[in-house]
Amino acid sequence: MAAPGPIAPPFPTLPKHMATSRPFFPFGSSTRTGGARMECVDALRGVAMVWMTVFHFCFDLSHFGYWPQNFRADPFWTTQRTAIVALFLFCAGLGQALAWQQGLGWARFFKRWLQIVGCALLVTAGSSLMFPQSFIHFGVLHGMAAMLLVARCTAGWGAWLWPAGAMAAALPSIAGWALTEGPLAAGAPTFNGYALNWLGLVSRKPFTEDYVPVLPWLGVMWWGLASGQWVLQQRPQWMMATLPRGLSPLAVLGRWSLSYYMLHQPVMIGLLMAASWVLGRS
Fold it and tell me: Which helix H or strand E contains 33, and what residues bound it?
């Protein structure tokens, strides 16, 4: 009996000069492909970082009383927050598509994943000191860590990622009805508690400074993963598009995004605290 031939990869293999040496993630990753970088993906992540910085600076101004705003209810701010988180998670899906296409192993995945988990724990610790009543117990980094595991395990679903993403996006609304007016109303306190509210199947959102549950946000990451797989199959050259020189700083920021994410708020808060001290504001 003849030995079986090699199993074909799920997507066409990129040319040698485009072969990646490591997976990339939405935070602080190296989107390197051989000697070049996937600058378009880095820059897209950089756009999310700049937008997030402006958003957080406005939040900090409100927190210190310089420009009071309602960040919890005003659609101008809540819509921006949704868009920023969606852009981060979509980039995460793109990264996982490339990692899957190149067959990169779990060891490299977990090396970066553990860094994200560690930073998530630092965010929880820091927010518990600054916002003890509304500390971050499952924010964007916590959600990112959980969703990356799911995306990694489901990357082989191919075209099924599209309807799976739609189902993930719809489930919280269905659960909200079931837990308020439907047959699961008695279980609402359980689903709303810390033990399970990270799933996103809640009847009311927790009081916290950042909340990015697995559902519906996993749907956005799945759509990013599906989009990335389609691009790698149909238009691989898009991943290698050359950026205009003026956009290069965005790509640099995108490559250092985890470090930047962890440092930008302490720096801005520190500057505003110093300004308050100089101005004699309590």
Answer: strand 32-33
Q: Is 80 exposed, middle or buried (0-12, 13-18, 19+ CB in 10 A)?
A: middle
- Give me 281's structure tokens: 């504001």
- For tokens 């199947």, the residue is 201
pLDDT (tens digit per residue) in 157-184: 999 999 999 999 999 999 999 999 999 9
Tokens of 175: 């659960």
Closest CA to 202 of 180, 221, 181, 222: 180
The identity of residue 17, as a single letter, is: H
Q: Is residue 79 part of a domain?
A: no
10 domain-assigned: no
Q: What is the pTM of this model?
A: 0.85
- For residue range 19-56, list pLDDT tens digits in order: 333 334 455 444 444 334 578 888 999 999 999 999 99
Q: Identify whether 54 is part of a domain.
A: no
Number of domains in the chain: 1
